[in-house]
Amino acid sequence: MLDNLKRRGSEINLAAFKQLGIEFVHGDIRQHSDLEDISGNFDVLIEASAEPSVLAGIGGSPHYLLQTNLWGTLKCLEFARERAGVFVFLSTSRVYSIAPLKEIDLQETPTRFEITDRQTLPGVSRNGITESFPTHLPRSLYGATKLASELIVQEYVDTYAMRAIINRCGVIAGPGQFGKIDQGVFTLWVANHFYKRPLEYKGFGGGGKQVRDLLHPFDLFSLIKRQLAKIEQCSGEIFNVGGGIEVSTSLSELSALCREVVGHEVAVKENPETSAVDIPMYVSDYNKAAKAFDWQPRHSVRDIVGDIFRWIKENEAQLRGIFT
Ligand SMILES: NC(=O)c1ccc[n+]([C@@H]2O[C@H](COP(=O)([O-])OP(=O)(O)OC[C@H]3O[C@@H](n4cnc5c(N)ncnc54)[C@H](O)[C@@H]3O)[C@@H](O)[C@H]2O)c1
Question: How far apart are the C-alpha atoms of 288 and 324, rounded to whole Å?
């Protein structure tokens, strides 16, 4: 496992990796020499390093984002071509264009937005967003770096007969993720309930009705294992990967669940101001992956919140001050 430990708190996971016998290399995917220093060949390279915030580059320089998510990813891809042969790319639902995502017809229930049956765009139904949803309009700098990388991954498959797979993930959430306001917000939500810190429903009227699907890392891991077993049949393909409509929540529903699981209530401010890159609803329609790999997520929203809560409780002192 290689990581430059840029993500605040990521060094805390190293002890657990050591216990599991996972070798850690402190390196940066932007640095050719850091990859070159690694000896030997590999069966698979899973590219999961990134600047993962959709707000990255907004109001400042996109340099780190472009260098890591584009240049660094391509370095990993080339490293995989030379040394691994199989490349698994963790892409994102953020490759889908923002304007069409905002055009999805929604209805409002007391606790969440819901997708209606009245849709005019391709790739959307009550089950969520499929791989055919539009990507051709702006989708944030973060989304663009991932989409651009996807294209090159597919060219490597075509040009070098390389075996690779692209997973467009919805929200991944679970223990070991160092949630912050612009990424990992579900972990942050549980953490703030635990540490009794206030929160904010931001955007879309300020009622906390925005919805996302969540995927437990163990469910992602089980999918990747199944994909690797069938890599010859699915190389170069793109899959939407997430918890789907069954494992989705609004922030308002999440607050209610956190109150129950954590046992604290915190103040949640209502802020109707919506960020230009925010969207009211994203749920992965993972039907293609389910059929191809006989897979489905096993962990519910309650399981995920419970696992995050236990992790924070067991590491209370060490994690205090990490989530911001
Ligand atoms: N968490 C989600 O909801 C989500 C959703 C869709 C896609 N993804 C993708 O999944 C992957 C993992 O995301 P995550 O949520 O675990 O994010 P994360 O920030 O927790 O993990 C990314 C890791 O990459 C490391 N890193 C950053 N820049 C690096 C560099 N230049 N060289 C080496 N390491 C570097 C960070 O230190 C961090 O440990 C990313 O590719 C992300 O884009 C995540």
Answer: 36
